[in-house]
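step 4 of 6: structure.
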Amino acid sequence: MANPVLVEVTRGGMVESFHRGAFALVDGEGRLVAAAGDVDRTVFPRSAIKVFQAIPLIETGAAAAFRLTPAELALACASHSGEDGHVRLAAAMLAKAGLDESSLECGCHWPFDAPVARELARRGETPTALHNNCSGKHAGFLCTAVHRGEDTKVYVGRDHPVQVRARAAIEDLVGQALTIDACGIDGCSIPTFAAPLKGFAHGFAKLVTGEGISPQRAAAGRSLIDACMAHPWEMSGTGRFCETLMTAAPGRVFAKTGAEGVFCGALPDLGLGFALKIDDGATRASEALAAAVIARALRREDADLAATFDGLGRRTLHNWEKVEVGEIRATMPPA
Amino acid sequence: MANPVLVEVTRGGMVESFHRGAFALVDGEGRLVAAAGDVDRTVFPRSAIKVFQAIPLIETGAAAAFRLTPAELALACASHSGEDGHVRLAAAMLAKAGLDESSLECGCHWPFDAPVARELARRGETPTALHNNCSGKHAGFLCTAVHRGEDTKVYVGRDHPVQVRARAAIEDLVGQALTIDACGIDGCSIPTFAAPLKGFAHGFAKLVTGEGISPQRAAAGRSLIDACMAHPWEMSGTGRFCETLMTAAPGRVFAKTGAEGVFCGALPDLGLGFALKIDDGATRASEALAAAVIARALRREDADLAATFDGLGRRTLHNWEKVEVGEIRATMPPA
């Protein structure tokens, strides 16, 4: 059966396009608090679980040994915009481990954010691996490898200790083994393992409640989530939607986008985690739905804040002459 | 009922995302030669019917009076990339009518093609209305208004003679009245009227067969389609998919993309027109499906050429390190 329509795009009062998908809002015990669509479908979480992948950076003691700051921990969980400050911070993390950008294996790309890319071009520059949106995550991987005395080459390989540790943390949080037949290669060359959508939501709920995981793991996860909530710009970039969501409720909402229409997050005060996937992979839809899911989670506790997130789930569309032409809106089904 | 899945995006051998939609391949009498999904659904054709909108440029005699070249006619039907040559050609069209870019009402935007935008930024320039992907269409509108002695101000308005003529041509081709309640504003500020998907396919089939329309209209349409097939770069841009499709079968395939996952086209030799819409509006999917629909149309006549278009309906995906990670592929349902 097809997943329900969860986001609509209108023009002139008509629905021009629409997006189907699924979401799961889950508590620490794994109970569905709210959901739509097929939450058992196996999906690639992509960058939405960078927090899971950064847990070994804390657990190995690497973050403490290299005195990584909360801003640097946020960058380790980031899909950043490649702004100058992100590039400097990634270089600083590598320098703490005695490395530089030549150790990064994430590849180079022009910043996704078009104005940032054009500014780089205007200055006559070209992007380095430090501009890659994943450079902070990779700097974190390298800090861990150096701290443990492991090879810093081919750390993106599935069998490198860095990836083995990340995989073990994800398996613990998702609550099932991650198998090779559900493994793809991510944009930055590391393995990405597919698992049921609700498993990723449960993983975030475990991290903010500590249920079903070791106190050490819960503390590691919480320190990363707190770092992201305190440094949303480092974790995303100027005007990016993760920054928008987290600055709308400082310290109360964690949210992280992933490629191909994935979004994950947590509401630490409420002990809830969520995960969503838009079937067609559209970011415009995953963003609108993420705001709506957060609004749903907050509704009973804080109606005003829920209304703020309802508002973030709708965006007016303008054309090149700044004329209003329609909107993108989450269409949350009845509870 | 949900439209069928027509395009899949894979990663690591799994389907990561997928796109639903509908297509209609139609002959001059309006018979469905092949179809999938709800072809009666009302959709906005957006830029995919710029040929329809340019018909008055020929029929009023403006194109002849201003001695517009085939390359300029192609630009009048274009969503171009804003490359230097496109900008010069749009300026030349306006100059023939005694105007310049200050008359354009399409608005300014950075070229959609990222390398073109970065090159503009690298030179320290910013985009003008001539860079707008619709500047050729607007130059055509203005040529027609000047030729007819009409006001060149607010020519984007729904009641301006330029738009009234365009609307009448579309109604004739689609075979039904276009109503205000199905009218939106397009990206370049002109009205866009929604109509059933199969109507747009039929319109292109009418233009290449002459069935059901006046010989003058058929000749006007054919001259525009021939101009586009002869000048695919002017009608799109370097490496753009319309260019790719038309250069793969010179003079035998016309294809035009539109925003929000629309694609239209015609196979003049076969007397067929097609229209498709991806439900979620994704261009990556409309492109793959357009190639597959053209392949379907050609299969019986030219198996080799059909295989070429089947190939264009699949695209290998690489990550930033150029590692193959998956593919985008049209999944044409059984005939």
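step 5 of 6: annotate
 - Chain B has a mean pLDDT of 96.
 - The radius of gyration of chain B is 19 Å.
step 6 of 6: archive
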